[in-house]
Design a protein that fits this description.
The protein has about 500 residues and is of the alpha+beta class. α5 packs across α9 and α11 packs parallel to α14 (about 350-360). The chain folds into two domains: about 1-280, 2-methylcitrate dehydratase PrpD (Orthogonal Bundle), CATH 1.10.4100; about 290-425, 60s Ribosomal Protein L30, Chain: A, CATH 3.30.1330. The chain has helices at about 20-30, 35-55, 60-70, 90-100, 120-130, 135-155, 170-180, 185-200, 215-235, 250-255, 290-305, 320-325, 345, 350-360, 370-375, 375-385, 390-400, 440-450, 460-470; strands at about 1-5, 75-80, 85-90, 110, 115, 260-265, 310-320, 385-390, 410-415, 420-425. It starts with a strand and ends in a 29-residue tail after the last helix. One of its GO terms (molecular function) is 2-methylcitrate dehydratase activity. It comes from Rhodoglobus vestalii.
């Protein structure tokens, strides 16, 4: 890896194109490298993972709505849509499938300077691959690039402290991945990356306060914009330049300002793209910072039956800055303690999540968020006694670049009514590569089977899995097998289309 120095340039400094971050990204994306065996295996795992969580969300309102929109844009040959038998225009397939994958907040994650769900790259790249007649090997290379670019950007550039949504890193990465998929030249990918970034910067209000259904739509929109950006660039259309470094560009006015300086790690030309191996998936349907806390709460609930609302004075989770200020009490969002809050809001309330996992000793992607579950009196009472507090050491470990030290959990201190205290800590989720039960192919397949049970016919489950594990060998005509089918009507209120 080599660090690319990134700063703002005055217009009269005339930064050469070859020195711009978007061009460096395009150079990487225009290389056609064969993935390593480990990377190939992980791409297959994440395709299965995406399909699992998309399948579990097929009847949820945001997914039904997005699918209905997509079905109004049929195309030939077109791209497949989860839960539909129709083929649609690739940007609309990216949209519908992106919403399905993201709706339950249940797929892979990478956290560093910023946040990301790099699996969001798969829907737009797959959609373009299907529409343009690419093979499984082409798709594999494209997905590897998408993961590489997004994770490299997330390692270096913090968006959230400026309240810019993390999908601003997804637009460029998806455009780069599509460029690799199609074998485009550096100049075309450069223009596409710039356009994709320019059109996908938005505020983090989508993840603040009363969180709406747009939380699932935000990455889908970025994927859709990436497809459209590549299409325009292929037609010779250009982007604002320099998009990152310009005097009126992203860094100067949306991020750290005119004096900003970043070091973005990027692979050398010819170097294997292995960033996907740094990411990790979710065992539980909740914000990633909640994963370890769910595992710890379940364990405490099993080992300490005395942990009931009548015996607990208060619970304090000592944790990282992000957990405290984004999903904890430091966010100062009253909605995070509201039993009538939306599922999207409860998903971002660590106080709620810890309480339910402690009481139930389990976590379910539907039942744990059900209105009747959230409104249970003993849950509401205990929930209000749970707060978070930033701990400098857990914040340091959260931002550590050492994988063996990086942590997403913290220390819980439970004060009992009799004056005794229970104190335990957890660094990473059980499913994390360094956790108690790391996910491997077996666990990804189990997750898919579990979430597909009762949703898909058994032969459809087996058909999809047989195709997914053969991803690198799939022909162009077989690439449509990387979706799930069934009778899932997309009936919603009528819109424009």
């Amino acid at each position: 890896m080599k660090n690319h120095s990134l700063r703002v340039y005055r217009s009269d400094e005339n930064l050469a194109r070859e020195g711009q971050l978007a061009h460096k990204i395009a150079e990487i994306a225009s290389e056609q490298l064969e993935p390593t065996d480990a990377v190939t295996d992980m791409v297959i795992n994440r395709v299965i993972d995406n399909a699992a969580v998309a399948t579990a969300s097929l009847t949820r309102a945001p997914v039904v709505s997005a699918r209905a929109q997509a079905e109004r844009h049929p195309a030939e040959p077109g791209s497949t849509v989860f839960g539909s038998d129709l083929r649609v225009s690739p940007e609309w397939a990216a949209w519908a499938n992106g919403v399905a994958v993201r709706e339950l907040d249940y797929h892979d994650t990478f956290l560093a300077a910023d946040y990301s769900h790099p699996g969001d790259n798969i829907p737009p790249i797959l959609a373009v691959a299907q529409h343009t007649g690419r093979t499984g090997a082409d798709l594999l290379r494209g997905i590897v690039t998408g993961y590489e670019i997004q994770i490299d950007l997330v390692k270096a550039i913090c968006l959230h402290k400026h309240k810019i949504d993390h999908v601003a890193h997804l637009g460029p990465s998806a455009a780069a991945g599509i460029g690799t998929l199609l074998g485009l030249d550096t100049e075309t990918i450069f223009q596409a990356v710039g356009q994709a970034l320019h059109t996908t910067t938005a505020t983090r209000q989508s993840r603040k306060g009363e969180i709406s259904t747009w939380k699932a739509y935000a990455p889908a929109f970025a994927g859709k914009m990436a497809v459209e950006a590549v299409d325009r660039a292929m037609r010779g259309q250009t982007s604002p330049t320099p998009i990152y470094e310009g005097e009126d560009g992203i860094i100067a006015w949306m991020l750290d300002g005119p004096d900003a300086y970043y070091e973005v790690p990027l692979p050398e030309l010819g170097e294997p793209r292995t960033a996907i191996l740094d990411s990790y998936t979710k065992e539980h349907s909740a914000e990633y910072q909640a994963q370890a806390w769910i595992d710890l709460a379940r364990k405490l609930g099993r080992e300490h039956p005395e942990l009931t609302v009548d015996n607990i004075n208060r619970i304090v989770l000592h944790t990282s800055h992000h957990t405290h200020y984004v999903i904890g009490s430091g966010a100062n969002d009253p909605q995070k303690y509201d039993p009538n809050a939306s599922r999207e809001t409860l998903d971002h309330s660590i106080a709620y999540i810890f309480t339910v996992a402690l009481q139930d000793q389990e976590w379910h992607h539907v039942n744990s968020y059900a209105p009747e579950r959230a409104n249970r009196p003993d849950t509401v009472e205990l929930w209000k006694r749970v707060t978070t507090q930033e701990d400098a050491e857990w914040t340091r470990r959260y931002h550590s670049i050492d994988p063996a030290e990086k942590a997403f959990g913290g220390r819980v201190e439970i004060e009992m009514t009799d004056g005794s205290r229970i104190v335990e800590e957890i660094a990473v989720a059980d499913a994390h590569p360094l956790g108690a039960r790391p996910f491997a192919r077996e666990q990804y397949i189990t997750k898919f089977r579990t979430l597909a049970d009762g949703v898909l016919a058994s032969d459809e489950i087996e058909r999809f899995l047989a195709a997914a594990v053969r991803l690198p060998e799939l022909s162009a005509s077989e690439l449509g097998e990387l979706t799930v089918r069934g009778n899932f009507p997309a009936t919603t209120a009528k819109g424009i289309f």
